[in-house]
Design a protein that fits this description.
By secondary structure, this protein is an alpha+beta fold. The chain has helices spanning 23-53, 178-181; strands at residues 61-63, 74-84, 91-98, 100-105, 108-114, 122-125, 133-143, 149-156, 160-165, 171-173, 188-191.
Amino acid sequence: MPPEIGQGRESPAPTGRSLWSRPAFAWAYGLAVAIAAFAAVRATLGAHADREYSRTGAARWIWYSRDVREPRALSFVATRDVVLDRTPMRATAKVFGDRWHVLWLNGRRVGGARQRPGDPLALYEVAQYLRPGVNRIAIESGSDTGIGGLLFSLDVSEWGRDAVVSDGRWSVDPDRRAISSGGRYRPAVWGRPPMYPWRWPQVPRPEEVNSKQ
């Protein structure tokens, strides 16, 4: 009678030593398994690190323009209007402006700082500047060479972390009156952190939070 499917005939016993009994093969196999396991753990930890180091969520580095034909001083205003249904209990603005920035909310100056790659984010508690209805966020920024980057994220207690971020929906304008009137042009978008030369802007230590305002 033929064997049943999946059963097969009994294989003859192997002659000589099995590969598993050879120390060199067993060692190499164990090393390969260890490397694969390490790679899997590293990938998992890397994804976790991305989330931990990304203190600004989906925020993009933006700037006034990509077209810089020669080094020259540049300043501009980046603006975004957001609508709130109520005044939040807490709100924290996280800003990085290479080489400098000044943050305004609803026409009121919140604070500013000079920053270079490697510096931490500037943090501002801004709930007192917000109100129900339309709120205008305005950030003056610029550099001596015309090249730089601006990154912004706003944590709002009722709406979560990184509720408002810098991206292509903002407007930019070289006219300082845009602080109150709003910008007229679309910004250049460099991309999300980490990217050269800013990498991952870090959150400052508690004693540094108010030192640059």
